[in-house]
Amino acid sequence: MENELQEVRKRPLTAPEIKAQVQRIQEVMSAVMERDVHYGTIPGTPKPTLYKAGAEKLCSTFHVGVNPDEIMDLSADDEIRYRVSVKGFYQPNGVLLGVGIGECSSNEEKYKWRKPVCDEEFAETAPDRKREVWKHGKEKPYKAKQVRMNPADVANTILKMAKKRALIDMTLTVTAASDIFDQDIEDLPEGMEMTNGKKPPIQEPQKKKPTEDPPKPPTPGTDRIVTGIDTVTQNPGVNQKTKKPYTLWKLHVGDKEYYTFSDTIGKDAETASQAGLRATIEHKKTQYGQEIVTLTVEEPPEDADAQ
Amino acid sequence: MPNELQFDPDTHTYTINGRRLISVTQALAIADDRRMVDPYYLERGRILHKACEYLDRDELDLETLDDQIRPYFLAYVKFQEDTGFKPDLIELRLSHLTYLYAGTIDRIGDLNGNHVLIDLKSGAPAKADPLQLAAYWELARVNTIPIKRLFDLYLHDDSTYRLVEVVKPKLLLPVFLSALTLTRWRNGL
To answer: Where are the domains of chain A?
Structure first.
């Protein structure tokens, strides 16, 4: 087994050998590697994530030596950025097995900003060095105050992180363990993490409701009420002078009564009463009582059809 | 009407005269597998686009904006406030009858005196993003819509934005057309 990695590079792997190698790593995982120390499963990700300690354990198991090959300083104004490449070689004979690369920048979200010590510090910080940012809360999003981190304060962390990423990349490459482990999940850019349906559904935005025309002022000499109509009655009769038939419609609203001779208004009122809809009644006082001048039935609510 | 582009939002397919066209998004999937992202982010992007569209058409009921897209939406609002960008074409569907593909251009409008094309993004930048703009640039060109500059507008979850210009789309277009050809071959279209 010690020459395993060296041998496989001399000829193509057979299917049983590939299976054996995966099995070997799984054996190491169960025998030597400890969950949450050497690897762990980040919620919402399908595969376990290999940590630095786990990468070192795998390298040790397969006798892979690590040699930080090149450190590129890509820093610019107000930013520390390193790219590190790491070579993995077979310790007994020094044969190169593979190379891993990793990069880290102080402009990454978690290194660029920090919480202010107090509100005074936030207030005294220059506007271009502070911000308020939306964060996901337990129940609803909230705004958090942040100030810029001094890049020099995290320079060593950035370098170590780049090296760590390179090490994990190299380990996954030379042990062909990418199908078992994810790269450290922090390396995934924002928006690429798998949610596995854990996120709540997003509500569709709606269009504004069309603005309604402002109600017209009542005709002079009339009053207006907006009300439901309890009952509607109709009394047919004949005009004594003209001898023409008519229908006297009476609307009962509480203890009040309104009348009309208009069949259109009467029927609309009857419909509103039966459907339980409100109506705007414009009325005027006559010698016979309150005569309806106009009647407008309100539209039913939108969800009425759904019920 | 002949040559009228039809779009089915459920299947995200474009057809013209009954013939199915390849969408820009579909062609790019073959060029960049990172585009095969979690459905949640696709849904978030779709709903954000809808909210921004309603905003630009002055139709949005702000009360109905979901908190999960609000920061990205505010980033778009901030971009408009900072630059004074006002789109004159919104969610414009165009087709290319020679190359037989179609796509929806997010925004075309005036930015600092230039007639520009802008694509809204709510996820991380992807390598194929410039190819997408090259595809849109060609769609606009063939439909005689003059475009001076092209931009990806990345909207972030901290309500900030980043405007990235894509230059020399003519040089990128052959790459997109290669992806288009490969997609057509793979799908037997």
So the answer is: 4-106+151-210, 112-148, 223-297
